[in-house]
Amino acid sequence: MSSATPNAAGYQPTTVQLQVLQTASEFAYQIWESRTISCQTFLRSYPLEQTLTRQQIDDLIQDYTLDENYQLADETKVMSGLRHLRTLLMTRWIWQDALGVITLEQLTDELSEFADGCILFAKDYTYQQLIAQYGQPTFMDTKGVLHIDDMAIMAMGKLGAHELNLSSDIDLIFVHQARGQTDGDKAQGTRSIDNKRFMTRFGQGIIKLLDNNTADGFVFRVDMRLRPWGDGSDLAIHLSALQKYFTTHGRAWERFAWLKARVVGQITPPFYDELQALIKPFVFRYYVDYSAFAALREMKSLIQNQVAQREDLDNIKLGAGGIRDIEFIVQAFQLIYGGRHHQLQVKACLQAMQALDELEYLKPPTYENLQAAYRFLRRLEHAIQAINDQQTQRLPHDCRWQRNLAITLGFEDWNALLITLNRHRDNVTVPFERMVTERQIPAQDDTTLEPAELDEQIAQLDTVLTEESRAQLQTFWQSKMVANLSDEARTRLDDAYPVILHALLAHQEQQQLANTALPRLIALLEAICRRSIYLVMIAENPNATVELIPMLSASPWIANELARYPVLLDTFLQQRYRHLPDKPELRDILRQRLLRVEPDDEEELLSVLRLFKKNQVLAVAASDVLAERPIMKVSDSLTYIAAVVLEAALERAFAELVKRYGYPIGQDGDPVTEADCGFAIIGYGKLGGLELSYSSDLDLVFLHKIKERGMSTGEKSVSGMKFAARLAQKLMTYLNTQTRDGRAYEIDMRLRPSGNAGMMVISCHGFETYQRDKAWSWEHQALVRARAICGDKRVTARFCDIRRTVLALPRTLEQVRIEVTSMRIKMQKHLGTSQWQQQAGKFHLKQDAGGIVDIEFLAQFAVLAYSHEYPSLTKWSDNVRIFEEVALLGIWEAQVCQDLTDAYLRIRAATHQLALAEQSLLVDEALWQETRMLVQDQWQCLMGVEPAQEE
Predict the structure, then answer these.
(1) How many CB atoms lie under 10 A from the CB of residue 738?
(2) Alpha helix (H) ranges present in 744-890?
(3) Taking the complete model, does pTM exceed 0.90, yes or no?
(4) Is 370 left (phi over 0), alpha (psi -120 to 50) or beta?
(5) How many CB atoms lie within 10 A of CB 263?
(6) CA nearest neighbour of 647 among 613, 614, 600
(7) pLDDT (tens digit, 9 = 90+) per residue, 365-413?
(8) What is the 3-state secondary structure (H, E, C) of 16-37?
(9) CA 912, CA 914: separation in Å to the nearest integer?
């Protein structure tokens, strides 16, 4: 129960104070206007001129969570009380900040203490509720002694460093001690569950109390994405799993995150010591940590690339010279030198900065500039967030709030504020640019070209260009676009041009293809000149630019992608295609980028998913062009990229719906969790068969194991069926929506049960019934190439069981032969070459007789015809391993299988090259006669019929 009862002797602010509040915050002034008596009473007890102690904050939390009888209230009233208290405190903090009666450190400390107090209250409240149901979680130590399993709540980021701002979310990680069971006893009305489930519900309960947005608002937005493995993993991790993660999977960027990690409240000393013994060596190395330099360069590059992508000067955190740049500078020094200097093992940015100054890692002017910029930017951040109680770091566009913001911060007008802001940004940018820098110098030994003056190089290029190319180049330089460039952009173009000239001449020297590359290069320059930061990238990366030109001449597809999405240029100039990441690396790259997206920023989420996909696919294409990687490796990489995007989209979509509706009920009667979400994505076609190409769409089917009529756990609950359907819709939005960055993927759902007439998502039971009783033979053919991609492991395991059972159903050889042949004839009639194309000597690599579809159908025929007798045939979804298995089992001769595999890979490699060259799959038949005849002969031998003759 709140102590803020009506009191005539409440606090009465002056007219000036009220004017200051109205100028500073629409949110806080509305609270004052609508709840004047509550605010007056609260401020009488806790005046603006005074600071709050932790004890006072704890007393307030206790006071606002009591009922009318001064007993601990039920969950609904507790949530309401905490939210009312947060509103009053926010009003008070905003007012204090606007009046200048509280320091930056005191404000962030009080905000952090309030967050700690709320977390500990929520932890104790939820724990008491859970042990009443399940008993206490326990575990056995190595000596066989039974202990109570405790959970440490790790505060990360700003909360970990006691730097919380006015509208921060709170980054948390839950760590418990060990696996075990609760000591629930049915005789006492409790039931035993394993510690993993207990800790998951423990975490869910804490998040619900703090994060759920009710009619009264929220207390703190809780962000759990920094936990090991991120979204989609268990909410809580035990110590031995955390140790294994740090040892095997922990990335350099995660060391940045754990640098600020702090245990909220008290845990037992042995547990605390074990935890610190894991964290400290992960974050800090005893010797000067030179191994961190490469990772720091990568992180710095990521920051710079995002700034270039956004061109977001309004963002005082993420823009150039913003808060993030300051934190990067300070934390980079901490990571490299913190193992040797304990003074650097502090969490707060200002404290660490001071230690760097004392240790002389920062020069005095740099230290003064950085700490002044940090204080200014944090104060500005608070003032921006105070306007509408929003988690934002963007400068307002509204003239009224620009003026109000300037007045609140003590400036005469908006322009005066911007002058100061830009001065601070410049003071940050200089040391940031110096950090772990690695500027390239042209490698003259890469080419036989002698260094020459610009005029000489222009003349030299003129001699190798065709008349048409010279005209195109002259048209570019005389275009309105170039004429209308700003002075800065024109200077950058002039600086980049010698590097471009050098690269073109080098390409001509090596491959004589400057005339092929030039028109594509001009298209790229036209795309990037107006966002001239990319010209700087070219000027500063001459060696990489030399490598870029051959790709433009080799692949119009690559050239067009770069021209359409210049933001992808950074990947090329950093030559990331030299190493194609495996699936875990891809997952980590995307996770890093998604951690920079605010949980409710859907526009930025869509952008990150699309640019990640395009960057990685482009890197594969570049690797394909330059390194001539085997076709299987190329397709594996493209398939990994799709799988990682699907995983991330599912995790984020699930989290969004849980925030809105709570958790749906699984078919076992318990709410699902992040790690076991009751939903899975199944890949068909090229995705299922591990043979994606550069422009492949994704054939998907969505399955669930959610109780369809059960209601979700949220305040605004929906049925399990609605939850699953909305999750599928949200996924489609994330993947299929057209934005300025294009689509992530084209999604095709026509292979789901009943096709376009069917539900978008179906239960495992419904899927099994359909496959057994209603599916057409061609749908069983499609099932051969189906594969679980991501989602709940229980759902994916069930799908695998269903697939195995259905494919191994007894079928006669003749029945399968007739059905497969019939479908092949239909496809060829509709999709193969026309009669006049055949007469012109054309052959469609995919659809014509002797093409890739014939080979795929032979693999599917083998699985459907023989799996009842040889169940191991159902193991694989890709053609190559199906043929290997067929040969191993002796069903067909090994040479036959090898010939089909070789033909399949030869045709697939050609389709990839044609895609990169933006050419049709309709080719000259004469070039493929031998391969085509081999496939047709095998079809006739194995199937007993020749599709081309079945008209």
Answers:
(1) 9
(2) 764-773, 777-784, 793-807, 813-831, 835-839, 852-866, 879-889
(3) no
(4) alpha
(5) 17
(6) 613
(7) 999 999 999 999 999 999 999 999 988 888 999 999 999 999 999 999 9
(8) HHHHHHHHHCHHHHHHHHHCHH
(9) 5
